[in-house]
Amino acid sequence: MQDAVVDLLDANAEHAREFAGRFDDVQDAQRPAVVSVSCADSRVLHDHVWGNDEPGRVFTCSNIGNRVFQRVDGEDVVSGDVLYPIEHTGTEVAVVVGHTGCGAVTATYDAVQGVLDEPAGIARCLALLEPHLAPGVDALPDDLGRAERINRLVEYNVDRQVDLLLASDDVPDAVDVLGVVYDFQDVYDGARGEVHVVNVDGETAPEAIREAHPALAHRIGRLWTDE
């Protein structure tokens, strides 16, 4: 462990040298344009996904399954880490970032199938996802392999998180909500590491998104188009 920690501290020293002058405008306040909600996965370098090297530009939060909600008194509500920048810093764009080969989606898929053997803390997170993903598991085409089923469920999960944001009274109507999938497994057409837009404000039909948002047209890609 010590070698790993030394490596981290050395990398942080380089970060401090590089970023020393970039905090002047944000030392006392922040007004990020975007809140980005990603899955907690070591292969998803959240800020790097967006090419972000500017403090105060993107408010990032990560968790198992890129969830935008938590359960309070039996009700699903928008998580505080997602809601904070919307409520307090004027952020008007929310992006849900799923990724190919998602372990949380895979485990939830297995849980829906009745196969689950995880410690209590992980099981609790999967239990939050399960009721939202179960209808998608039932709707999957029968002729797909396991990896194909998981990657379609990744999109389905992103869609459900977008829906939860759009349905919440805590999220103003003026907030734009985008759902994307980060691909490092060469599942979509495009370069490895690209983000593919699968949902804009609840619209999932690629042609409809292209028509409404022509600037996004070349970044739209979706596996599951017949929900």
UniProtKB/TrEMBL annotation:
Keyword Electron transport set for record: no
Sites where the protein binds Zn(2+): C39, H99, C102
InterPro entries hit by this protein: Carbonic_anhydrase, Carbonic_anhydrase_sf
SUPFAM superfamilies given in the database record: beta-carbonic anhydrase, cab
Gene3D superfamilies named in the record: Carbonic anhydrase
Annotated EC: 4.2.1.1
Origin: domain of life: Archaea
Keywords: Lyase, Metal-binding, Zinc
Needed co-factor(s): Zn(2+)
Catalyzed chemical reaction(s): hydrogencarbonate + H(+) = CO2 + H2O
Cofactor note: Binds 1 zinc ion per subunit.
Single GO term (MF): zinc ion binding
Enzyme class: lyase
Family statement drawn from the similarity comment of this UniProt entry: Belongs to the beta-class carbonic anhydrase family.
PANTHER family for the chain: CARBONIC ANHYDRASE
Protein known as: carbonic anhydrase
